[in-house]
Amino acid sequence: MTTLSDTTLPEPAAAPTGRTRRQGLSERALARVFVAPGVLLMALVALFPVVYAVVVSFQDYTRRQYNGWAGLENYATALSSSRFWESLWFTVYFTVTSVGAEFLIGLGFALLMNMAFVGRGVTRAAILVPWVIPTVVAAQMWFFMFNVSPGFINNLFGLGDINWLGQSGTAPFAVIFADVWKTAPFVALLLLAGLQTIPDELHEAAKVDGAGVFRRFWSITLPLLRPAILVALLFRTVEALRVYDLPAVMTQGTFGTESLSMLVQQYVVQTPNPGIGSALSTLAFLIIMGVGLVFVALLGRDLVIGKEGS
């Protein structure tokens, strides 16, 4: 009869030593190996135009004929041009005013869409309609609306024959108005997503404690909405700094509405001077990247790229 003492038990498996663990890649290292080719390819695709523009910006051209090394001459020409500063001024003015108005209007739309009322679905659809219209189509539509002939805006409000797009005082306003109409719903959509992450229990508890509507908005909604606000401002600010379609279609860059992107396109595509065009595009890239880095710093590294190990 076989007893328990007669049975030979298998030896327990040896605990893995450090040498054993080093024989194979960990899951994290293996994931990095598989992801590396894609990341490398994306980096090459994204960085190649930037690096190429920087290289060309240090070279001298005459009607696309290469003349040799130019050093910082193209940058000196660009920075000493009044046209560059005028286009930069309009770009900054357009960005600050349009993004500010879009944030305020978008926040109002988001608060409205977050409320429960009859017809909320129809209201949401109506608010988001301008956002789905292509920018060029919206620009052409507002060109006809602000045009003095047939003058839909003038006829609608009884304003006479104001030439909105033909004056330096009103042309920038018309372009900014069209951009706010087009993009405020996008800001509202981002803020609405942030509002829906705020637990209702916080508002209910504050209401029990006697906090009013403004107090709850100021002390609960705004602080918890901060990440969504910064993301919305980041997207819209970077996009506004690159504005091209609206002023190109509505005013062709006249009457103080030439943006930095329009100026770069003028030198790179229309005017055969790739050296100055590349210097302008490099300056525009540095400005936009600087603004983007400021927002990333405000957002926080963990919020943008995720926490290590998550």
UniProtKB/TrEMBL annotation:
UniProt region (Disordered), positions on chain: 1-22
Swiss-Prot/TrEMBL GO biological process terms: transmembrane transport
Subcellular locations according to the entry: Cell membrane
Occurrences of domain ABC transmembrane type-1 (ranges): 88-295
Bilayer topology annotation: Multi-pass membrane protein
GO cellular component labels: plasma membrane
Keyword Transmembrane helix: yes
Chief location bin: membrane
Pfam families according to UniProt: BPD_transp_1
Transmembrane regions listed in the UniProt entry: 29-55, 88-113, 125-153, 173-195, 216-235, 276-300
Keywords, sorted A to Z: Cell membrane, Membrane, Transmembrane, Transmembrane helix, Transport
Top-rank taxon, per record: Bacteria
PANTHER family membership: BLR7065 PROTEIN, INTEGRAL MEMBRANE SUGAR TRANSPORT PROTEIN
Protein family (similarity comment): Belongs to the binding-protein-dependent transport system permease family.
Protein name: Carbohydrate ABC transporter membrane protein 1 (CUT1 family)
The organism of origin for this protein: Bogoriella caseilytica
